[in-house]
């Protein structure tokens, strides 16, 4: 059972991933039969993936415009180094993304197959336990979250496109090629973040469905309640295993995503500083789209962190749902045994998301993330202040020198 809105949103995420070859093979989606299967064009799609990866990597070369020589970056070494750092990170992101998909292609396909088996196995069980209206309401709420995320991604892309075009000092063939290359990489980065959010939404859906199933079992009067609880425990264990497998398989890709998000936020804020002190000339449209880019970028980042935190929280807070069984006046021996097994399982299988097994992403880490961005921007602003003071000091020195000569 899948809400039509959530199904359409997931198709949008899927087709974005297919266009940029972010999957190891394609899926065959048939809406009228409500089935999803692995397609038989994996070899052709692998060649297409190789072509897309090489194309994006070579585009990094064409992203270097003459903007460094005669544009707004000519007299600002911080912007120049920031620009080359972004180019290096984009190249690393492309290599890490498609390298993971090529080297771990068979593991990805095996993950797809296991996920399809998982959905078919537990779909019928959840349909028999969870109330239909509650499930549809849950899926509709997740669809709205994903729609908002897509709007934020494309809003940031639109604002960035307008600003990048306004920053072109000279419009010629070379600058337009560099501009098109940057837009291609922006769309690739957008598709990667959209695919990551789509995976998180599906995982959150499964954990919240488990919560609904536990609530339904608490209020249901049946003789075989313990069998249904065993199925719920099996579903939870399998979902945690799939989540850990996804996090581990796409660890390098997700690490490059967060690093690029960090550098992009610093780059956007530092450009905002240049606009505010009139180092970069702009009109009303530039200020409007610049503010829009800041809002969309940080709103989208915070929303991604919130979705990730919801997945981890909904998994680890499943034990809170089991406390309501303590209110039952009488619990059978079989049901009590299944409750004890599920409680022990929840203690042993807590979900934690870490980047490269080092940095744990949670709400405190999100605050540290925002604080680090602001700290780095403030540090970069010190270079601007020092550079702006330098001409005035030279001017005073020349005035004093001229006065000494006239006195002599």
Automatic annotation (TrEMBL):
<feature type="transmembrane region" description="Helical">
    <location>
        <begin position="191"/>
        <end position="217"/>
    </location>
</feature>
<feature type="transmembrane region" description="Helical">
    <location>
        <begin position="151"/>
        <end position="171"/>
    </location>
</feature>
<dbReference type="GO" id="GO:0050909">
    <property type="term" value="P:sensory perception of taste"/>
</dbReference>
<keyword id="KW-1133">Transmembrane helix</keyword>
<keyword id="KW-0675">Receptor</keyword>
<comment type="function">
    <text>Gustatory receptor which mediates acceptance or avoidance behavior, depending on its substrates.</text>
</comment>
<dbReference type="InterPro" id="IPR013604">
    <property type="entry name" value="7TM_chemorcpt"/>
</dbReference>
<keyword id="KW-0807">Transducer</keyword>
<keyword id="KW-0812">Transmembrane</keyword>
<feature type="transmembrane region" description="Helical">
    <location>
        <begin position="252"/>
        <end position="273"/>
    </location>
</feature>
<dbReference type="GO" id="GO:0007165">
    <property type="term" value="P:signal transduction"/>
</dbReference>
<feature type="transmembrane region" description="Helical">
    <location>
        <begin position="285"/>
        <end position="304"/>
    </location>
</feature>
<feature type="transmembrane region" description="Helical">
    <location>
        <begin position="45"/>
        <end position="64"/>
    </location>
</feature>
<keyword id="KW-0472">Membrane</keyword>
<protein>
    <recommendedName>
        <fullName>Gustatory receptor</fullName>
    </recommendedName>
</protein>
<dbReference type="Pfam" id="PF08395">
    <property type="entry name" value="7tm_7"/>
</dbReference>
<feature type="transmembrane region" description="Helical">
    <location>
        <begin position="84"/>
        <end position="103"/>
    </location>
</feature>
<dbReference type="GO" id="GO:0005886">
    <property type="term" value="C:plasma membrane"/>
</dbReference>
<keyword id="KW-1003">Cell membrane</keyword>
<feature type="transmembrane region" description="Helical">
    <location>
        <begin position="12"/>
        <end position="29"/>
    </location>
</feature>
<comment type="similarity">
    <text>Belongs to the insect chemoreceptor superfamily. Gustatory receptor (GR) family.</text>
</comment>
């Amino acid at each position: 059972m899948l809400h039509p809105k959530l199904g359409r949103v997931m198709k949008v995420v899927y087709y974005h991933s297919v266009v940029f070859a972010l999957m190891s093979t394609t899926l065959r989606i048939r809406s009228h039969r409500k089935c999803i299967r692995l397609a038989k064009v994996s070899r052709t799609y692998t060649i297409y993936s190789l072509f897309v990866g090489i194309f994006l990597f070579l585009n990094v070369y064409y992203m270097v415009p003459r903007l460094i020589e005669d544009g707004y970056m000519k007299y600002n070494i911080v912007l120049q180094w920031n620009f080359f750092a972004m180019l290096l990170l984009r190249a690393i992101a492309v290599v890490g993304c498609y390298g993971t998909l090529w080297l771990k292609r068979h593991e990805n396909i095996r993950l797809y197959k296991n996920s399809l088996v998982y959905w078919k196995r537990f779909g019928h069980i959840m349909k028999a336990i969870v109330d239909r209206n509650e499930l549809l309401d849950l899926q509709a709420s997740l669809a709205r979250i994903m729609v908002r995320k897509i709007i934020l991604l494309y809003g940031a892309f639109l604002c960035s496109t307008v600003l990048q075009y306004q920053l072109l000092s000279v419009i010629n063939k070379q600058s337009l090629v560099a501009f098109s290359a940057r837009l291609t990489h922006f769309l690739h980065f957008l598709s990667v973040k959209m695919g990551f959010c789509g995976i998180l939404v599906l995982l959150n859906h499964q954990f919240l469905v488990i919560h609904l199933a536990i609530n339904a079992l608490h209020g249901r009067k049946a003789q075989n309640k313990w069998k249904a609880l065993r199925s719920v425990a099996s579903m939870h264990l399998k979902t945690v295993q799939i989540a850990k497998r996804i996090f581990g398989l796409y660890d390098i890709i997700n690490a490059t995503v967060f690093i690029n998000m960090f550098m992009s936020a610093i780059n956007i804020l530092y450009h905002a500083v240049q606009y505010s002190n009139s180092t970069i000339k702009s009109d009303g449209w530039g200020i409007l789209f610049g503010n829009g880019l800041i809002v969309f970028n940080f709103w989208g980042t915070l929303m991604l962190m919130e979705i990730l935190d919801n997945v981890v929280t909904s998994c680890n807070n499943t034990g809170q749902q089991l406390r309501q069984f303590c209110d039952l006046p009488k619990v059978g021996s079989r049901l009590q045994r299944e409750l004890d097994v599920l409680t022990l399982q929840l203690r042993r299988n807590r979900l934690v998301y870490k980047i490269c097994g080092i940095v744990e992403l949670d709400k405190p880490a999100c605050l540290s993330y925002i604080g680090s961005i602001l700290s780095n921007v403030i540090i970069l602003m010190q270079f601007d202040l020092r550079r702006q003071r330098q001409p005035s000091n030279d001017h005073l020195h020349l005035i004093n020198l001229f006065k000494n000569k006239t006195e002599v």
